[in-house]
């Protein structure tokens, strides 16, 4: 959809504590189809970063190829971005993160990009517990090539072409859990109330944070027989509970209905409050896996925070890299000089 | 039968079973020759296997300093019954065979034109040691001891080597020296020592070192400031990353915290490895991967991205014999074309061709300067021969005044002062190289989106054909600029004016230089040019223009460098004569001399006379 966005903004747009208005977090105009779930996800990312008052230039946004991978152009226009090759966003993010551990990494991918061509890289970036937010905009189809089924399409789900999909789906949340992810969540692009606190918690989490967002493709996979359409998602979603993200232990002002509540303190001191409907423990990996399967068996989609381990070793911890970003080390810190070389030469005679 | 008599000029070949500990014993032989001041060059010929298959270690000793492969074997040390018949058959007439005589030798292997020296190694070990592992390991040390007597290796040199080898494990020194003595005493008692082929101390190696090319490349990367390494294990490149880790753990540890000033990611495959390198390069770190042919093929798509999006990346390709899995433990120079034009669409990449370890070190470091200055991938093409064999090399040296060249990167201050709109792909200096910014530099200026899709000068996505063509033309201009950045060729002028030339590069160099000398002795004159980089500059073009016939020597079937020269320099193909060698073994001077001699034809040819012991060239 192409249209011109008016340049006018309210002169007194509220600024966050770092002095940035929401406009500083917006990107170029989206060229996706009107009503695409992905645009809502972009909106949620913008809102989350604005509310967390992250300086835009401290964020690096990275993607692969596909409709979802186009979206980094449409949010965080003041952040460096890298639209890499199909299915390989994880490796680019890994190299970037190793080079500069002080940046905040937001990777956006799709179900084709992560569950098919990039399945290998997805599994391995999870294993390394790379400190990043990895968000999949999951619509069960290949939009840019006109609607072929993807590897996350459910058995029997039919896209616009009408042929039911005969193959078993890959559940990326279950895979992430099995590969050792330290933060796993699922959400729906149409549920900003749930998605925004999840994104905020994922950014605050130290380690690999994965969010699988059901994000319907209005053009090719929003049929009555599709399990990734708006209608199915709205009527089949069950949430693990209501979630609230509190940055750096600030006072909670929101009002919640009473219920079983769990409080998780993240590495940076932020707190996640989870108001649960049932007694599902989101620090139980096996329980999370079982719950995903139980709900899927009943034809339902379990959303919300599925699993979190706030105290894990990220890739830099495993690598024992210096706290100062490698990219900030100068020649004097990197080049051992001629004297060391003389000693090496002497040992080779 | 007339036994060969030769001092400091011979080839000895050790035939062993891999996984039996022979490597360190054979290495001791090489080092002792080296420490006696005599030029030496070993080649490890090993199987793609961990234990049980035949392996050879061929050592050329050459007083004149030629360190390329010579071809032929003067002494075979036959420690592998499996390959013994073949090993004996390769020995030159008048040569020697050293073998384990604990069991009688199969008489069918006997030859009248060579001398057999039997050492009852198994028997000595059976009497001396009870532990089976010791019996096997010390067998190797005992034959070195015997060779010491037979070939006049100074025993003190060997003792010092043992001391150096087991520094920190002192209790192993005495048993090893004892094993050396066992061999030495046996040989002294039973044979007339030394034999016709032997060593004499000289002072011909100066301050040179013995180092594998892969170690030197790794050190080059450390000195060149590489911080992020991403790789997938593949022979023969693995030891680059092993060496990087070994030295970085010594040289790149933060004194205060003990933390590492480097990171090594063992990737899930080569695609991920190069992706990580590109991610790190985009973020501003110096980063490399090491691989071989199959990995280069897998990395192609990403190399196209780095070329088009203009992200610095360094790739060390330690070539092996292809295509496909080919001969994974044999050498070749056969990735030239696939490296030069890696990836779909119109691409071309900067290549460097190191010829020895000192140059591996230098180019290892320089590759990062070039990648950042040119904002593009740089591929260093080494090979198994250079990468995994000890080469006698000039010592590694780092000029204290040398500064990293980080290329055109705008820092926060420069961005602050910028008055006009920043354009990532705006050719401000008219050299095709634009200014980049690194993520996180400035809160509001210099941000841009990196992509593999077409874009305009301001990094905005576009499908405009004009903008696309402008960008592609600028990339060509950048490649023109690269010609003045990359190292130029080296020339080796003939003694007499000639219209014949020889072009070579990388590990063909040593044998070509020896061949040029050999040809001169036969009255055939050839000017030599060693290529050190692609793109080729005008010096390369001038050399080709000023000769009528040029032999292009390279280790692949299809004459890939010849083709690259023809295409890139627009040369008449008839002018460039392909001189290829691709059986997986290093090319020899003998082969080159023979091929040139045949090509020249008609010239008066006197056969090369074998140099007598002690005779000066």
Description:
- The complex is a heterodimer of chains A (349) and B (617).
- Chain A is an alpha/beta fold and 349 residues long.
- Helix content of chain A is 30%, strand content 20%.
- Chain A contains 12 helices and 13 strands.
- Chain A has an 8-stranded mixed beta sheet with strand order 2-1-3-4-8-7-13-9, with helices on both faces. In chain A, strands 10-12-11 form a 3-stranded antiparallel beta sheet.
- Chain A is globular.
- In chain B, the strands form 5 sheets. Chain B has a 7-stranded mixed beta sheet, with helices on both faces. In chain B, strands 3-4-2-5-6-7 form a 6-stranded mixed beta sheet. A 5-stranded mixed beta sheet of chain B has the order 18-20-19-22-23, sandwiched between helices.
- The radius of gyration of chain B is 27 Å and the shape is globular.
- Chain B has 20 helices and 23 strands.
- With 617 residues, chain B is α/β, with parallel strands linked by helices.
- In chain B, helix 2 links the parallel strand 5 and strand 6.
- The mean pLDDT of chain B is 96.
- The longest helix of chain B has 20 residues, at 132-151.
- At the A-B interface, strand 2, helix 3, helix 5, helix 10 and helix 11 of A face strand 9, helix 7, strand 11, helix 9 and helix 11 of B.
- Strand 2 (80-83) of chain A pairs parallel with strand 17 of chain B.
